[in-house]
Specification:
three-stranded antiparallel beta sheet, Immunoglobulin-like, 22% helix, globular, four-stranded antiparallel beta sheet, 139 residues
């Protein structure tokens, strides 16, 4: 076998492996962090956001609280802040991550700098339920 033939086989094998991995991700066999692991209805049922626009020396902002009304702790909570013009059209949006966990039946404070807009809309965009399994088997 010549050196060129060996290199060609290695390149073909890499290409096949890459194609297979991509296909598995696309059909959902390999989990992706972008997959939704909750029902969209959970956003309205399990979370509530209270907020107000602010203005300080750094410019416009949004601050408020995210309430977890469920009996489970949420983590990796993100908010979408939409900027709305005078006619009601969305002209832009920002994503804000809530650091740490959002304990069950509790709230956490958030604050974000945003570009100036006529109005804003704030909603929970995504979250994960925390895995709080049982403790170890004590004696």
């Amino acid at each position: 076998m010549t050196r060129l033939a060996g290199n060609t086989r290695r390149i073909a094998a890499r290409s096949t492996t890459t194609s297979l991995a991509l296909a598995l991700v696309l059909v959902g066999i390999v989990p992706s962090s972008a997959q939704m692991l909750y029902a969209p209805e959970s956003l309205q049922r399990d979370f509530r956001v209270e907020w107000q626009p602010t203005q300080n020396r750094r410019g416009a902002g949004i601050e408020g609280y995210v309430y977890n009304t469920s009996n489970r702790t949420a983590q990796r909570v993100s908010l979408r802040i939409e900027r709305v013009d005078g006619s009601g059209s969305v002209v832009g949006s920002s994503t804000v991550w809530i650091p740490g966990e959002l304990p069950m039946t509790d709230r956490v404070y958030f604050s974000a700098s945003v570009p100036t807009a006529a109005r804003y809309r704030v909603q929970v965009l995504s979250f994960d339920w925390s895995c709080q399994g049982g403790g170890g088997g004590g004696m």
